[in-house]
From TrEMBL:
PANTHER family referenced in this protein's UniProt entry, alphabetically: HYDROXYACYLGLUTATHIONE HYDROLASE GLOC (PTHR46233:SF3)
Alphabetized UniProt keyword annotations: Hydrolase, Metal-binding, Zinc
Cofactor: Zn(2+)
Organism annotation: Fervidicoccus fontis (strain DSM 19380 / JCM 18336 / VKM B-2539 / Kam940)
Superkingdom per UniProt: Archaea
Protein name: Beta-lactamase domain protein
Pfam family of the protein (one): Lactamase_B
Gene3D superfamilies associated with the record: Ribonuclease Z/Hydroxyacylglutathione hydrolase-like
GO terms of molecular function: hydrolase activity; metal ion binding
Residue span(s) of domain Metallo-beta-lactamase: 9-185
Length: 192
């Protein structure tokens, strides 16, 4: 499986199997990379409901007819029928100005579910339904693990709802012993 990084509000990844992980890169950029490599996008996997990860999901899904896959615990927020919780008042106020375009979730996943060869692994903490997607020894971690110059780390505390749970989830993900982690932000992490 080849993985292509498309930079945007968050790292957006396209695999050679036609799976897009998160939707923070502009649709035009995503479609260009897909075309360049002859890939048709069949699934858009969402790691969590944060704005920078879902911003372009509806437009990409519309233009590619891809199925949207997201954590069951966050589907109502991603679909726009519930409001997310925020770790601070300032983030809550900021969110009122961010117009999130809801997207219909076609497939809702919970821990252990598999879609198109990707296994969903629940990694709550950063958000309640944060989910990593794993294929063999490759892991797409969303913001459950970020990259601090190629080393696993957590996002800034102010963006995380439950820091203790986030720490536990990171530990759990690392115990799966991925060889490469593709994080939501920062550069890919190669594990020894
Ligand atoms: Zn996030």
């Amino acid at each position: 499986m080849e993985v292509f990084l498309i930079k945007g509000m968050c790292n957006t990844y396209l695999t050679s199997e036609g799976i897009l992980i998160d939707a923070g890169a502009k649709p035009s950029d995503v479609l260009l990379i897909a075309k360049e490599h002859g890939i048709s996008i069949k699934y858009v996997l969402i790691t969590h409901y944060h704005y920078d990860h879902i911003k372009y999901a509806s437009e990409i899904a519309e233009r590619t007819k891809a199925k949207v896959v997201a954590p069951e615990a966050e589907a109502d927020i991603i679909e726009g029928s519930a409001r997310p919780k925020f770790p601070s008042l300032s983030l809550r106020i900021m969110s009122l100005f961010a117009t999130i375009k809801p997207v219909k979730v076609d497939i809702k996943v919970k821990d252990g579910d598999e879609v198109a060869g990707m296994k969903a692994v629940a990694a709550p903490g950063h958000t309640p339904g944060s989910t990593a997607y794993v294929s063999g020894d490759i892991m797409f971690s969303g913001d459950a693990i970020e990259s601090d110059n190629g080393k696993p780390s957590l996002p800034p505390r102010k963006f995380t709802l439950d820091q203790i749970m986030a720490e536990k989830s990171m530990k759990k993900l690392l115990e799966l012993r991925p060889k490469i982690i593709y994080p939501g932000h920062g550069r890919p992490i190669t594990m020894q």
